[in-house]
Write a structure and sequence with these properties.
Layout lengths: L1 H26 L5 H23 L3 H6 L2 H22 L4 H21 L12 H22 L10 H30 L4 H8 L1 H14 L6 H27 L4 H9 L1 H8 L10 H25 L1
């Protein structure tokens, strides 16, 4: 059972992110996404901050040993989530999830091209190269699907959708850098809880400033606020922590294969949002992406043996 803990935690993240993207994609039609950022990551920081101070006070000294990594992680995290939620406000959730996820391996490959190799990054295997080419083609296909009006969220302003697609390039690359700085802190002895307690400070400051400037609109009373707060914790805070905990307990190939199912699960959850319609073009691109990313990881695993 212990060996299943890691994969189950990652699977929990994949299922919850499907519900997250569809639910908040709907919520963002009436509530500014910065309000949700402030609520979700404010509660996360309070909870994990209190835990760190009470149960792991020595972790503060560990974090101070690499303040540059803490600051860089905050910058990358704030940029990633702001861009991701902006895109989720204007594009079909399955498209958002797929492009955001796909930018992670492409960012690692880009860094490797500049001599920054991470975890054995590199694609000397031709089959692996072909898989990444297919994955990139699938992501490009999603751009065409959205801008041609064939996605599950048609009728949107094309200029805004183009901006949202560009934002996803930034969000995917930024979250990858954020995770790299997080790993750097892990390597010097920081725990998952202590890292989470300091990861979102800049995100909270940005969200607070934008919420103060624009005001809070669309929340219909205390019951609605409580529902959104519970959803923020259940669908954003806890899953992110479970992913962080699951990765450390799961073989890399297994973890990547499970995470590749994420976009498919998001697409499957979209019928719960009446705004969205069935898009065969979106599904085909997601299917090609998922097969390609699984194949790339399998071929990478063969090359590493």
């Amino acid at each position: 059972m212990t060996s299943l803990a890691g994969p189950l935690l990652i699977l929990l993240f994949c299922v919850s992110q499907a519900l997250r993207d569809v639910y908040f994609g709907f919520i963002f039609q009436r509530i500014d996404f910065f309000t949700i950022l402030l609520l979700a990551f404010g509660l996360s920081t309070l909870g994990f901050g209190a835990y760190t101070l009470l149960r792991e006070p020595k972790q503060l000294a560990v974090l101070r040993r690499d303040l540059k990594a803490v600051v860089a992680m905050n910058l990358a995290t704030a940029l990633a989530w702001s861009c991701f939620f902006f895109a989720l406000s204007h594009i079909e959730p399955a498209v958002v999830n797929t492009i955001h996820s796909g930018m992670a391996p492409l960012t690692v490959l880009a860094l490797a091209a500049f001599g920054i190799k991470l975890g054995g990054a590199g694609t000397s295997n031709r089959l692996e190269q072909a898989s990444y080419i297919a994955m990139t083609a699938a992501l490009a296909g999603l751009w065409i699907v959205v801008l041609s009006g064939h996605s599950g969220a048609p009728g949107q302003d094309r200029t805004v959708q183009f901006a949202a697609l560009c934002a996803l390039l930034v969000s995917g690359a930024s979250i990858t850098l954020s995770l790299l700085y997080s790993k750097r802190l892990h390597d010097i002895g920081a725990t998952s809880a202590s890292i989470t307690s300091v990861r979102y400070w800049l995100t909270i400051a940005l969200a607070a400033a934008m919420t103060w400037h624009g005001g809070v609109h669309g929340i219909a009373g205390a019951a609605d606020f409580a529902t959104i707060a519970i959803a923020a914790v259940a669908l954003i805070v806890i899953p992110l922590f479970s992913l962080q905990a699951g990765i450390g307990r799961t073989p890399q190939l297994t973890g990547q294969v499970i995470r590749a199912l994420g976009p498919v699960l998001v697409f499957a959850a979209q019928p719960f949002d009446a705004r969205l319609s069935w898009s065969a073009a979106t599904l085909i691109c997601i299917f090609v992406y998922s097969i390609a990313i699984i194949a790339a990881n399998v071929f990478h695993g063969w090359r590493s043996k």
